[in-house]
Amino acid sequence: MATLDPANSTGSAHGALRGAAIPGAVIRDAAPPRAPGRFRLPLRRRGATAGDAAVRAALAPLLSAHRAAYPDADQAELLRGYAVAERLHRGQLRRSGAPYITHPLAVAMILAGMGMDTTTLVAALLHDTVEDTPFTLGEVRAEFGEEIAVLVDGVTKLDGGRWGERAEAETFRKIVLSAADDLRVLVIKLADRLHNLRTLRFQPEHKRARYAKASHELLVPFAERLGIHVLKREMDDLAFAARSPGAHAATGSAVRAALGDAAGAFGPAILRLRRSLAEHGVHATMRIRPSHLYAVHQSFGGRLTGLRPCEAARLLLVVDGAERDCYIALGAVHAALHPVAGQVRDFIATPKHNMYRSLHTRVISPDGDPFEVIVRSRAMHPVAEYGIVAHIRDAGDDAATADAVAGRRDLVWLSRLLAWQSDAPSADFLDSLRADLAAGNVAAFTPRGEAVALPAGATALDFAYALEPALGDRCIGAVVNGRLAPMSVQVRSGNVVEILTDPAGRPSEDWLEFAVAVPARVRIQQCLALRHAEEAAEAGRRRLVQALAGRHVDLLAAEARGDSLAVARSLGYDEIDEMYGALTTGSLRLDDLVARFVGG
């Protein structure tokens, strides 16, 4: 039997995601019913009754979870997908010794727990077949249709033997490009990574740390950008456990001790809040929400001695009502408990880049401990927990299309990523992607009131490039909140920024000293590289003109006849400017090039 390395596989999942279908979400099939027989097994592959019964028994938990979200879904599609995947992976084992089929089945369970559609679950069951079995993408397309083939292709890694050191970077680039066409590609990839993290203990220690680090830097930020916090929190903690097992254990112990009497610690505050909410006519559900371990570690590091309940948990108020009732509830909170000055954050009026909407405030408990209260409506809650998944389920297939990417405010970051990725070479792509995904969030505004999301520390120059690359190229300054400011001025949330330009303006080297956003830096580097190439080509051409003049050869005439291009092609250059530039950089000797022209 073959043993496959799950850390080198695109798939993996162990059990259903904690939690059931999205509460309060409108659930319906994202696609019309398929024509009968589309997923029918060819006669030569059709199993006996006992085999069908075995497939149905193995798939029972998945069918049950999917039925909870989609009562009318066609189970034949899932049975068909599992039967094919199980047959193809038969004889393959995970590092744990479990049959490999347990991995794609677990990935599908995670997705079913979030309420994803039938097509996504079938693609999850098949997602490793093209990579790890003889099954081809063409066969996926022929047997399961174009939609599922696109999803499977999107999460299939590029061949390391063919792509070499570029494989990892180009695989991530491929995932990004595929997500632009169908966001479900990225959702499947995240579920896949979550299960691999759940089973990471079966890997060698050096692989565990490396895999967890990559997860923290590249996959967890994608989950956060898509607003899928149920995935982000668990991935955070699993990667934390693999990277720093000692710190993870200490944090877990401190949090458990702190929350041992959470009900008693929060009790007096909850009693006051209930009275205040009733007086304000607001109906809400209150719950104590423990912070996940990695968040506590980031906040307190090793300073865990005496961790208090109010430091290890927050209070969540889910309001029965509209937006206005959330603000009334916030007033009720402040009427009952003293608010900490400057600690109110309104993510309803100004949602986060992933369209997360809630009110956050920090108050003082009756015992004198400060703690955080989150207020959101029942309609906001599914998006706050499941992000884009809630939108996909609510809006149907259109939410996963390229048209939706172009129009959704919560996907502007993906549009910008798509804009700069094509200009980043493989060697730089992953570093640029990490920097882009790791960036914080600042929301500034144009004079017309359009919100522009920027990373923390961004400058007016970054703002200009975020509006339009050509605008950034010509930027010479800005007006921030009505006052003139240099391009290097740092933009803060709420600032109103107007960009000043000069038609003759162009990027310069010193711009890289204060450009923060990855799209801006990539564009500036691209412009500078192009200018340097043009300058090198011009300098090399001047040298060649002078050298050929002494041999009574007219370079201009040679260019007009096509002789220069012929010489360039014979030397392996696609364009004559590349050949001229090679003279300047020293990769081509002047005497050798002159000989080509004179000899011709």
TrEMBL record:
Residues 438-501 form the TGS domain. It holds the Pfam family HD_4. Residues 100-197 form the HD domain. CDD domains: HDc (cd00077), NT_Rel-Spo_like (cd05399). SMART domains: HDc (SM00471), RelA_SpoT (SM00954). It comes from the Bacteria. InterPro entries: Beta-grasp_dom_sf, HD/PDEase_dom, HD_domain, NT_sf, RelA_SpoT, TGS, TGS-like. Belongs to the RelA/SpoT family. PANTHER family: GTP PYROPHOSPHOKINASE (PTHR21262:SF31), GUANOSINE-3',5'-BIS DIPHOSPHATE 3'-PYROPHOSPHOHYDROLASE (PTHR21262). This is Bifunctional (P)ppGpp synthetase/guanosine-3',5'-bis(Diphosphate) 3'-pyrophosphohydrolase.
